[in-house]
Structures are given as structure tokens and as C-alpha cells.
């Protein structure tokens, strides 16, 4: 049985996976969410270490799932360890030499959640109550994580089975971005599957059962 390692994106706690975790367990799979270091002095290396510790805790190579910006953390795990596969949800792995979250506002301090107005289209399937509950549980993003430089070195990662779950964009959109050279790491992947999920950017909240099933399919 393939273990599943779940990695949440920016500002989220591991508890955001609760419903997905329970559904995966119901489907007969073993899942765990990574408790990423988010204290003020945390670095990208600290978060990578936490992910690798979760991978190493599995008896067999696990399926590593990364949401949004954490697609890069999942990809870094595939670069550093043997994994059964990688699932990316609404995000794409950064390339070697890029900042982990270089799209965030520049500065020296940690970065708070930018607010729902910056994600209005992405959050169209989240009602006001869901948004308020999510925001109440969000954490501040350490600057040392956001500005951390991605380092990739093992070309074997390109042969790892990869599933890109496309929520707020379509598989056709993703294919166009890949073909257009916007996603160089995905362009080199030899076992890439694009899967549609009709949701917003946070399907673990809006459609946990459907998301869990897609993850289970990738594990199967």
C-alpha cells in the first residue's frame, strides 16, 4: 500500500487536509500531512527537511502531494529521494535557481495572507463562511521560506510519475503553458498526466472527496 504525504501551500496549516485525509483513509490509504516549520526564522531548507523526514518515515517510497506553491516542495522531494510519484494540485514546481515564492511582495519581514481580493476568481467556490474559517487558521509565511532559492540536481526526477490536478485552470491551459515554455520542469517530465477538477484553488476545502479520489487514483 502506498503511503501518501500531503504538503499544504502558502499560509496553510496541515489541518487543512483533514477531510481529504479522512477520505483517503476511508479508501484504504495511509496519509499524513507535513507540519511545515513556519516560525519567523524558518527557511526553505527547514521546510524541505520536514518534507524529507515525512518521506523517510514511510516504509516504502510514498506518493508526495503538493498544493499550490508546495508543488515545488513535492518536486524537491522527488529530486532528493525515491518516491512512488508526485501529485501537484493547482501549482507548478519552480526551476533550479528560482525563488520559492518570488511572486510575493518584496520586503524583509514575513508575509501575511494577501487577502481574498487577490484571489477572487480562484476562490469562487468558497462561500464567506469557508473563507473566514480558512483565514482564521492561516499562518504567516516566513521571509526565509518565500525568498529561499530552489536547488534541483537529480535528473531522475523527470522520470517520476507525475499527476497535475488542474482546478481553477484546465488541462488544456496547462498543456498550452507547457508547450509555450512557461513550465520548464513539467516540459521535461516523461510521465505527466493532466487531470481536470472543476473547483477553485483550494479543493481540499471545497471538494475534499473528489480531490481524495483523484489522489487515490494516482496512488493506485
Q: What's a concise summary of this model?
A:
This protein is an alpha/beta fold and 220 residues long.
Rounded to an integer in angstroms, the radius of gyration calculated over CA atoms is: 16 Å
Number of domains: 1
Helical amount among residues, as a percent range?
A: 25-40%
Q: What is the highest CATH level, the class? A: Alpha Beta
Summarize the structure in words.
It is globular and about 35 Å long. Helices cover 34% and strands 13% of the residues. The longest helix has 13 residues. The relative contact order is 0.19. The mean pLDDT is 97. It is built from nine helices and six strands. The chain has 220 residues and is of the alpha/beta class. Helix 1 links the parallel strand 1 and strand 2. The chain has a single domain, classed as Rossmann fold. It has a six-stranded parallel beta sheet, sandwiched between helices. InterPro entries: AB_hydrolase_1, AB_hydrolase_fold, Sec-Metab_Biosynth_Hydrolase. It comes from Micropruina glycogenica. This is Pimeloyl-ACP methyl ester carboxylesterase. GO terms for molecular function: catalytic activity.
